[in-house]
Design goal:
Radius of gyration: 25 Å
Largest sheet: 8 strands, parallel
Structural class: alpha/beta
Strand content: 15-25%
Number of strands: 22
Oligomer: single chain
Distance between the termini: 69 Å
Number of helices: 10
CATH topology of the domain at 334-489: Transferase(Phosphotransferase), domain 1
Length: about 500
């Protein structure tokens, strides 16, 4: 049971390695030439009943064929190795992470898995994609950052697919068979070579989150006077304490034109799973500008922008940076929710800690929803699709004042045929937010209004937003009108 490692330099070392580990699965007999034994995190466990195995960042070129003996295995993480093929895998496997390896095709052993639920080949070298007829249960597939030029027509066989990540490839078109993926809710196609957006795509009945930036079919937003970058370089700006860090960058405290600001310094590389960093900052800057567009004027613009995490400027040197609105410590705002889990796939989660930090009174819920709806109305009047309307991208105060942030998936859709459908897609995402907050409603002490009545009212509004018949869904303007009526009804 030999295990080849990238750093092994000669056939002699490989033969010695094979002899040492022949009868010692999970033991200390795994060696790398000149580097001593592999850490335990890089070996198969001794317990053949293991349900989860993680062997990541080990430089492995081959996975031990003994993996087939783990017949209870459900989750296998082989991220950041140098694998280009795999031995037979146990059919019990449901979740397979192969991020950061060297696969050029999907191996037959993966195609043979009958219970696969989640599959990731992110950041490999895939040039083509094969869809297995055995993947009846596949709900989540990540093929981000490869060399894929086309999506096979067999993708229509994935009837249970809910989340599909295809950004940062070379895809020129989509097969019409993909419209059979009627359970698809989240789709990432940014930074490809799509020459047109097929109309059936916009009418997928459950689609709620989509990213299309940096494709020929989707042009960049106009550079209006107030959206133009003012600072190509730092110009003496000093970066202070770290405010936070995400997958795409680190956020620092700073100052900008005499006021406090938060500066996001993007990490190495060009892209995230949602699209390019450059595309993100272009749309965020345009969304935050106060130019008069589409009859949005004066106080209406100012009110809408209060509910967006504003981007003041974009800095291009010494590396890409985004100068954003600073959230003062004396007026704390926290994330309304947490990102989806492997179990929820496309829907946010809410931790007990968040439940304690955020009150769920009728006033709080209605104020939070109204703020996001106001921001979304502003965006769609400017033909901006946010693409990621989720609780984890919304900041809220203790009183329910809300701000929508994170433009990683956003794009400008003016010029795309039937562009009005983008708003209807985003309204569906908002409908799920309504449902989630309605479920969290609590009755505050001394409140004369019944939260159960408001819950029913909000659930009824959500139904108007998430209808599978896209033409029957509300616009954000209609959503705001209904929320205003509820606020009057509940004296808020």
């Amino acid at each position: 049971m030999s295990l080849r490692v990238a750093s092994v330099g000669c056939i002699c070392a490989i033969l010695v390695l094979g002899a040492l580990v022949n009868s010692n699965v999970g033991g200390s007999g795994y060696f790398r030439s000149g580097m001593g034994p592999l850490p335990s995190s890089c070996t198969l466990p001794q317990n053949f009943l293991s349900t989860t195995i993680e062997i990541s960042g080990c430089g492995l070129e081959d996975l031990d064929s003994a993996i087939i003996r783990y017949q209870s295995l459900q989750k296998l993480n082989l991220a950041n190795n140098k694998l280009s093929n795999l031995p037979p895998l146990p059919p019990s496997l449901k979740i397979l992470f192969l991020l950061g390896n060297q696969f050029t095709v999907i191996p037959q052993t993966v195609l043979n898995l009958p219970n696969l639920y989640m599959l990731s080949f992110k950041k490999n070298m895939l040039r083509e994609v094969t869809i297995s007829p055995k993947w009846d249960n596949l709900a989540w597939m990540i093929l981000t950052s490869n060399d894929i030029t086309h999506v096979p027509g067999s993708i229509g066989h994935l009837k249970k697919l809910r989340k599909l990540m295809l950004s940062n490839n070379k895809i020129e078109s989509l097969p019409s068979s993909m419209q059979a993926c009627t359970n698809l809710e989240l789709l990432r196609l940014a930074n490809n070579k799509l020459g047109k957006i097929p109309q059936w795509l916009l009418r997928l009945p459950k689609l709620a989150w989509i990213a299309l930036n940096d494709n020929p079919a989707v042009r960049a937003p106009p550079i209006t006077p107030l959206a133009r970058s003012k600072s190509k370089t730092l110009n003496g700006m000093q970066l202070g304490r770290v405010l936070g860090e995400g997958t795409s960058g680190v956020v620092y405290a700073s100052n900008y034109n005499g006021q406090q600001a938060a500066v996001k310094v993007y990490k190495d590389g060009c892209c995230s799973s949602d699209g390019t960093y450059a595309g993100e900052v272009r749309v965020a800057k345009y969304a935050s500008s106060r130019d008069t567009i589409d009859n949005i004027q004066g106080s209406k613009v100012d009110e809408a922008l209060r509910h967006l995490v504003a981007t003041y400027d974009v800095i291009e040197h010494p590396r890409l940076m985004s100068v954003m609105e600073f959230m003062p410590d004396d007026e704390p705002m926290v994330a309304l929710g947490s990102a989806p889990s492997l179990q929820t796939v496309t829907h946010d989660t809410y931790t007990p800690l968040q439940a304690q930090a955020i009150n769920s009174s009728p006033n709080f819920v209605l104020q939070a929803l109204m703020g996001v709806a106001t921001a979304a109305t502003h965006l769609h009047k400017r033909h901006i699709m946010h693409g990621d309307v989720y609780a984890h991208n919304i900041l809220v105060s203790a009183q329910g004042f809300s701000k929508l942030g994170d433009f990683g998936a956003a794009f400008f859709y003016d010029g795309v045929p039937n562009k009005h459908l983008f708003e209807k897609i985003e309204v569906r995402a908002f409908g799920f937010l309504i449902q989630e907050l309605a479920e969290r409603l609590e009755e505050p002490a001394g409140d004369t209004h019944s939260p159960s009545m408001l819950k029913d009212d909000l659930q009824n509004l959500a139904v108007q937003c998430i209808s599978s018949a896209i033409d029957h869904r509300h616009t954000f303007g209609q959503v705001r009108n209904e929320l205003k009526a509820l606020m009057r009804s509940y004296s808020i």
